[in-house]
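Treating backbone geometry as a discrete language has practical consequences that deserve illustration. In the encoding step, the backbone of a single protein was reduced to a row of integers, each denoting a local shape. The amino acid sequence and the backbone structure tokens for this protein are reproduced below.
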Amino acid sequence: MCLAIPARVVERRSDDEAVVDLAGVRKAISLALVPEAAVGDYVIVHVGYAIGRLDADEAERTLALFAELAAAGSADAAEAATLARAADARAAPSP
């Protein structure tokens, strides 16, 4: 399975290199496949390459959905850890 994520171009470095920002994380990527991308544009990034430009509204909706999924995953992980600790406590021999 492949995952491509929207990121905002914050700096152009050379003909085909740029820096993108995703929730405060900055990463150098290649714009070789999307040379028309400019600072402020959202691009879809896959394995270090921008593979297309994305409308800002669509990018924001997608990023909001990713944030919701991450929050739900964190809540599920916390609940699973709590249940595991409770199970361990029940299984532990009494002193």
Summary: The longest strand covers residues 5-12. The chain has a mean pLDDT of 84.
